Every structure is written in C-alpha cells, then in structure tokens.
Structure prediction request, 374 residues.
Amino acid sequence: MCQVNHIHNMAKYEVKDGVGVIPKGTKKIKDRAFDNCENLNSIIIPDSVTEIGESAFEGCTGLTSIIIPNSVTVIGEFAFNRCTGLTSIIIGNSVTDIGYGAFSCCTGLTNITIPASVTNIHGNEFAFNVDILGECTSLTSIVVDKENKVFDSRDNCNAIIETATNRLMAAYPISFIPNTVTKIGYGAFEGSTWLTSITIPNSVTEIGDFAFMGCENLKSVVIPNSVTQIGERAFEDCSALTSITIPDSVTKIDGGAFSGCTSLNSIIIPDSVTEIGDDWVYEGAFSGCTSLNSIIIPDSVTMIGNRTFENCTSLTNITIPGSVTKIGDDAFKDCTNLKAINVPSGKTDYFKNLLPKSLHDKIVELPPVKKAKK
Prediction:
C-alpha cells in the first residue's frame, strides 16, 4: 500500500486521505507514479497534463472513477491495468493514443466511449485486451464516437472495428458480427466468458491469432466457407466446444488453434488443408484435446506440426495419408491410449522414418485401395 510522499521515490506525488495529488503544471504523470496504491480512492488530473505514463495507476484497486481531461493526448501502456474497482471513466476529447493494456483487467468497468480524437490503439490490437489478462468482464457497452475517422462501432455492434480494414479488434457482449467485417482480429473475443455461441458472417476471410482464446463457455461456432485462415491459438481453451466443422476454404490450421479444447470429440478436416500446426509454435494445433478419440487426416495434408496431438489422451486411432512428408517433434506425445496409426499400404518403412521409434509398433497398414474397373 502506498504511503504519502513515498511513491517510487517521486516525492511530488502524494496520497492524502485517499486523494491523489498531482502538482499543477505537471505535463506527464510519470511511469508507475501511483502503481499499486490501494489506498488511492480518487484522483484529479490537472489540465496541464498531456500524457499519462506507463502503469501510472496500475493496481489502484480502490479507484472507482476517473476523468481524463481534454489536455491529455496519450494514455500509456497498462496505465489503469488491474484497477478492479474502476466503474466509470471519461476519456477527454484530445486523446489520440491509447497504449497496450491501458484498461486491461478493469473488471468493474461497465461502459466506455472512445472519443473521435483517438487514432491509435496500440499493442494486442486493442488496449482493453492484453494477452489472457485483458478481461474487462463487466463491460456491457462500448461505443466509438461517430465522428471518429479511424475506428467505429457500426450497426451498434458493441465492438471496436478498424474502419479502413473492416477488422473487428475487440468485442464485448454482442449478438452479431456485422456482415461488413472481413477479419476477426488478434484476441478480439479473448476471455469472453459470456460468449456461448457465435455465427461468423461470410464476409470474414481470416480468424486472427488468439481470437476466441479462453472463451470457456463457447459451445458452438459456425465458420463460413469464406474463411481461409484460422490463426494461432484462435480457439485455445474453449473447453465447452464439442465439435467444429472446418470449411473447405481453409488451407492451414495454425499451431495451438484448438489446443485445450477438452470437450472437442470430433472434428472434420477438409481436403483443402495442407498444413496442420507449425514447427515453432509451443502449443500443437489439437494438443490437450482430451476427448478427441479418432481423426482422419485428408490426402491434401503434407505437414503435421510439432505437438499437434500431444496429450490427446482419448485418441485411439488416427489415419495419416501418404501425402504427409513431415511429422513434427512430439506430435503424438502422451497419447496414452493410441492403439493404431493407420497408413497406406506399403508405407510402413516410410512412416518409420517420420515417427519416433516408440511409435513404430502402432503403425498399421491399411488394405490396398482397389482400382476402379474401367
């Protein structure tokens, strides 16, 4: 807890009877000026201030409301991160830059308006989302001023959309995604525990990295044929998701895309997919899918990435086509119930060169495919 005149050796910042004191004439509130001051209940920012530094009020759990004056142009990274008591914030109409994670983990915040002046929202696409910590779980309304030329919340969709690219950057309790959106951005729905189902419109061509990560109550999702890419860890830890159909427009399933989907028991991979997972992403595309019991990989696939099926403890059999030329490290690690790796006739030695020795006794050749009579 902060003490008066003892805030990271910055003696000019004080907390007196719960009120933060910033001297008149201050142009920048220094980085970490009041961070973790749990006894800070309110703050008056003088109109001389043009910048709020990084983590300036981070962890000020007693702070319930704040008015950012019109003099401020920059809100730094993590400026109000973990201000869990913050329920109201007014952003002045001169702010142009909102930093990475500026309002992340403000779990009491219910609504916010982004002014027309904001032109840059930095970091993980939007300052309210910062990796898996960006959970403003009480937020029910987010509005972008209609005069903003860079961002919008079209059709009252309760989301932030980058106007020029039609990229959905952040969303809160919404009933639909506008059919003008072309990309679901990085972490757009990350940690949205309110989300139980979603229909993605056929205007969308890309689902970005981390887009639905940690949506633990998401039970169903409809992916249209317009989607060509499912990003890294896009649906990671969607633990209520039981099945998903990947459209035949998708050519690659990135690493970690469905990792940790513990209820996922069936998945159809179309023959448009050429790569499953990556060589470098820590999480495999389906790692930790503990309910997945069987899977058929289509003839189009050439690569199965690192850790792709790691810890799929219910997986009993898998069929791998002869088109596969590479199987990454630990692709089947800890698949404790795996009984058969089905491969084409005559391909046992070929797959022994791709698989670790510990799996050689699991290789089962399928009967030769009979040629159709002329």
Observations:
- Residues 221 and 338 are 28 Å apart (CA to CA).
- The domain at 1-139 is CATH 3.80.10 (Leucine-rich repeat, LRR (right-handed beta-alpha superhelix)).
